[in-house]
Structures are given as C-alpha cells and as structure tokens.
Design goal:
The complex is a heterodimer of chains A (64) and B (503). Chain A is of the alpha+beta class and 64 residues long. Chain A has one helix at residues 3-19, and strands spanning 23-26, 30-37, 40-43, 49-52, 55-62. In chain A, 27% of the residues lie in helices and 44% in strands. Chain B is an alpha+beta fold. In chain B, a hairpin with a 5-residue loop joins β7 and β8 (467-476). Classes of the chains: A alpha+beta (64), B alpha+beta (503).
C-alpha cells in the first residue's frame, strides 16, 4: 500500500461526496462542504444593475 | 448528508481492502503530511482535489481544482450575470435593450435558438466583464432591433431636400453627370456683361483657382473638352460643350501672349467676370461647373436665354422629383400598414384601437376590429380569432404607441401558471432543475406541467462538453416579476432556483 495509492483513494472518496454536496469531516485537517451562493443583484460602476447567477462553491473549514 | 471521520475511515478501509485501523493510520499519516507540507512550503498540491495554502492568519485555505469546482457547480455552470437595468446615463444601445426587455417576444424577428445558450452576442461578452468563465447568457435577443428604427434627422424647414447643401458643397459627380452638357446655372445675366475682359485674368490666376477644385482633378475631362479656338477639333467633341474658364486659364498658364488670329467669339467665351462677381458679393460660389459650354450656343444672347431656361427647368425638376419620391414612399407606407392590418390577427386588432379616419374600403375591416376588441377578461384577451394567426409577427410600428404597448402586454400570457408559450421566447424563467439526463429532465418538466406550471426545458453545453438539461417554470416579462413569483414557489424550488432568460 503506497502513499500515492492511499492519497488517490482518499481523494476519490472525498471528491465523490463533494459532488453529491455532502459534508466531509476529516480529523486533523478540517471539514469540506458545499456552500450555495444565491443569485444577487449588484450595481456596476456605470449604473447597470446586473444579477449574478447562483453558484455552488466548495468550502473548506480548517480544524483549529 | 454529512460524512464524519469514522464513516470516511470505513469507506477508505473498504477501498483499500484493509481494516479500519489500518485505514485510520493511513489517513492520519496523509493528513499529517499535507499539514506539514503546507506549513513548511506554504502550499501543498493534492491531485484531483486542489491546493492547500497557508492563509494570512496561519490557517489552511483550499483552492479547489477548476474541474472539481465545475463538477460541484454543474447545476449553475456556465451561467453569467444578466442585466436587470441599463446604465443611469442611457445609451442608445441601452434603450434598445430596454425595448427588447419590454417586448422580447415581438421585438425579436427571428426565433432565438434556446437549445444552445452558448451562442451570444459579442456585446454581451464585452459588457459582462465579471462573467463567470464558461457559459453564456441567453440574451441575444436584445441587440436585434433593426437600424432602420433610428429616427432620422428632421429636414430643414426651408430646404427639405438639401439643395442648399448641394449648392454650398457642389453637386456630387454623379449628379453633375446627369445634367445636360450644355446646362448652365447662370446666377445673373448682368454678371456676364463684362465677360471677356482680359484684366480679370490675373485675378483668376492669382486667387480664384482653389475655388474650383473640379478643374484640378478632372484632367481627363480637361483633355476631352480642350479649348479649340481654331475650330479644328471634332464637332462631336464640341457638342459636349465644356469650353470653360479652365481652357482659358490653361491658355493663361501657357503664357497667353495674345493670339492675333484668335477669334472674338473665343475671347468672349472666357468668363472670369462671373468669379469676380462672386468674389465681390458675399454669396458663396455655387455650382462651379455650371458655367460650362457656351460654345454650343449659336449666338451669345440666344445661348444665354437657352441655358437660363434649362437651368430654371432643372431647378424646378429637382424638387418636383423629390416630391414625387416622397409621395410614392408615403403611399407605399400607408398601403403597407393597411395590408399588415389585414394579416396580423389580434395584433392588428390592437393597432386599430386608435381611432383613425378610415377610408371607405376599410369600413369592413373596422367592423372586424370591433368584433375582436380585447375584453377586460385576460383569458379572452389571449384567445385569438379562430381563423387568424396567433403568432405575433414583428410589426414595424407597434412599439411606437404606448397605448398599444400596454394593451399588447396585457394580451401576452406571462406568468407562473399555464401552458408554455412559444411566443414568449426571450422572457425570463425560473430554473428549478438542471439535469444531465435528458429523459429525467423531460419527466420533471411533465411533472411540473401537470402541476399547472408553465414549464420550459432546454439544453446547455457546459464548457466541459457535458450537456445539461434545464427545466424552468414560468415566463416573465422582467426579472423582478420572476423574483416575485419565486416567493410563491413551494420548497425546494423557492430556496433552490435561479432566474434566466429563455432563448
């Protein structure tokens, strides 16, 4: 069991659950989660009001 | 769903074909290695996941890989900002946008391709500087207002056909060619009283030449209409009749020593005095080529009268011809409007609401109009006459009258509930599903339709090449209308949706 294989398996499990928007906690490292950013209106410098689309973003909260 | 450390370890043990204790040790070792490398080197790359970096406060930050971010955000991938309102200083382009927003279904003469919202205007690309990389926003209906809609500058009240402009700048070459070769616009017969005097010649050489740029450039014509005091040139050439000052000037340039054999008529043909008169008066010199060719005149007095008559005729013919053209254009314009009313179904009905004096032949049509006047009931407003075409084809001047605009908007079936309306392509919708399975997206659409929603489905090719099928509900005239409708949606749609423009 090499380090590369271990890392590959860890990443595979982690990514698979992140794609399903699951929250993954790993002791000693932190918590991976998906945060949803709602669409929001924003006024540009030229006066235009644009609506930014929503997005699902990967969030990582390190363990303290 | 939350996956805690123990569960993660169990999954890892299964993947490594080992027991949980061994998997837990392996996981701890990997975590220690990542943390240590991040602490020591400031960053640690993990293939397939991203890069851990050391933040300013010493904590770890994860920068996920682009492909992973895209995968996680697949539902909204490729979305870009949509413009809700134009800039405060309204540009003409923004006005067009507003017009398109006001009536997206009709202002767009071509049905947009909503099956692929990758296609978009270059303008949008430039405008959306903070665009999320990758996708496209389906707003291409905005820029397609034809340029012919731009208002023309009003004509000068005293010079509706721009004759003054031509007189000041000189007629264009093609117009000059249309003039008869012998035609002459002589401003004043008395101005010719001193013609032929040699003392005017030095002035002509010294100062007036730049006022006649045509002579400088028309070198071919110059050779064609060369002065021939001896009468040796071909008579056909003489018919063309450009004798002109320039020939005399060329004589002067050649050093006109005075030809003893020169005929008096030839002397008289030289007309520098005209220019002196123009120079003396404040009037701008007009139509420099119009003093051409007196040579074809049999005698001086008769030729002057003849040329004056011709010039007067031409001066009258130009406005008359212009009037005729305008009259024809007006005729076809109003005739086209009348024809469009007969073919446009309920749109024509809306147009005919304005009481217009209608000629006899339109009386029957007016009766039809009264039969189909929109009633206060919106359902009846939507319902078209059975024998008329429902689809509102682009109408040239529908948007010019606000009253018509209001009536037509009432007639368009915007809203959250009801059947999907093809005519509202370009409206906004609330996307509630973004799926990769086409069949599933169709099932979801059907489910929403069964619940009474206006359901729309289309596909989007993401930058990764994956096709996503999106299902939206409702068709709204503006983003704010869509936002209000979101409040009415049940969960999970109310908290998990986004607004997009239908293509």
């Amino acid at each position: 069991m090499t380090e590369n294989k271990i890392e590959k398996e860890i990443v595979t499990i982690l990514v698979a659950h992140l794609k399903k928007h699951d929250q993954v906690q790993i002791n000693g490292l932190g918590t991976f989660s998906i945060s949803h950013r709602k669409q929001e209106q924003k006024q540009e410098k030229d006066g235009r009001i644009v609506m930014n689309p929503p997005a699902d973003i990967i969030a990582f909260t390190p363990e303290k | 769903m939350k996956l805690n450390h123990d569960e993660f370890t169990a999954l890892l043990a299964k993947a490594l074909d080992s027991d949980e204790k061994e998997a837990s040790l392996a996981l701890e070792a990997w975590v220690d290695a990542v943390v240590r490398e991040t602490e020591e080197n400031g960053s640690c790359d993990v293939t397939g996941l991203g890069t851990f970096r050391k933040g300013e406060d010493g904590s770890m930050i994860l920068e996920p890989e682009q492909s992973l971010s895209l995968e996680v955000n697949h539902k909204f991938a490729g979305m870009s900002p949509i413009e809700v309102s134009p800039p405060t200083s309204v540009r003409p382009e923004a006005e067009e946008d507003a017009a398109a927003d006001a009536d997206p279904g009709i202002s767009d003469p071509q049905k947009p391709d909503r099956e692929d919202d990758k296609i978009r205007d270059e303008d949008d690309k430039i405008r959306d500087e903070d665009e999320i990389p990758g996708e496209t926003i389906p707003e291409d209906t905005e820029q397609e207002i034809p340029a012919s809609d731009t208002p023309e500058e009003p004509a000068d009240e005293h010079d509706p056909f721009g004759i003054k402009e031509y007189e000041e700048e000189g007629f264009p070459d093609d117009l000059e060619e249309e003039l008869e070769p012998g035609a002459s616009f002589e401003p004043d017969a008395e101005s010719r009283s001193e013609e032929g005097k040699d003392e005017a010649e030095p002035e002509f050489e010294s100062g007036r030449r730049p006022e006649y740029p045509e002579h400088e450039k028309d070198t071919d014509d110059e050779s064609q209409f060369e002065y021939d005091p001896e009468g040796t040139s071909d008579p056909d050439e003489e018919k063309l009749g450009f004798d002109s000052e320039f020939d005399d000037e060329s004589d002067a340039e050649r050093g006109d020593e005075g030809d003893p054999d020169r005929e008096p008529d030839a002397e008289r043909e030289f007309e520098p005095v005209e220019r002196d008169d123009y120079a003396a008066s404040d009037k701008p010199f007009t139509l420099p080529k119009l003093s051409l060719s007196q040579r074809m005149k049999p005698s001086k007095g008769a030729s002057k009268n003849q040329s004056r008559n011709k010039s007067a005729k031409i001066m009258w013919l130009i406005p008359i011809a212009a009037l005729l053209i305008v009259a024809l254009l007006l005729y076809f314009h109003f005739d086209g409007q009348r024809l469009s009313r007969t073919h446009l179904g309920d749109q024509a009905v809306v147009q005919d609401e304005i009481p217009v004096p209608i000629p006899e032949e339109e009386n029957d049509e007016e009766q039809v109009v009264q039969e189909f006047v929109p009633s206060p009931d919106p359902a009846e407003e939507v319902a078209p006459p059975p024998d008329m075409d429902v689809r509102p084809e682009p109408v040239e001047d529908v948007a010019t009258e606000p009253a018509d605009e209001v009536i037509r908007d009432l007639a368009l079936p915007y809203g959250l509930m009801g059947p999907e309306e093809e005519v509202l392509i370009g409206a906004y919708t609330i996307v509630v599903h973004s799926l990769r399975n086409e069949r599933k997206s169709e099932i979801e659409k059907q489910r929403l339709e069964n619940q009474g929603y206006k359901a729309t489905r289309w596909s989007t090719v993401l930058p990764s090449g994956i096709t996503t099928y999106r299902v939206g509900i409702g068709q709204f005239k503006s983003v704010s209308d869509a936002e209000r409708a979101v409040e009415e949606l049940p969960e999970p749609f109310r908290s998990n949706n986004f607004i997009i423009r239908i293509r």
